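Colleagues,

For the teaching module next term, I've prepared a clean inverse folding example: a structure given as tokens, and then the sequence designed for it. I'd like students to try predicting residues themselves before seeing the answer, so please don't circulate the second half yet.
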């Protein structure tokens, strides 16, 4: 029973930390262009000389 008294606040704190990190990432535009980075890796640079 003493373990639950310690673990419940720790679990709530970790959940709240995750929620705050998620809200921070939403406000900073981390999910604005989810396909852009995946497509940019497939596009070759035109400036590189062919070897």
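(Answer key — instructors only)
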């Amino acid at each position: 029973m003493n373990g639950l008294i310690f673990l419940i606040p720790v679990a709530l704190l970790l959940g709240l930390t995750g929620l705050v990190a998620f809200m921070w990432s939403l406000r900073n535009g981390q999910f604005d262009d989810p396909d852009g980075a995946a497509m940019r890796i497939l596009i070759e640079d035109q400036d590189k000389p062919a070897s």
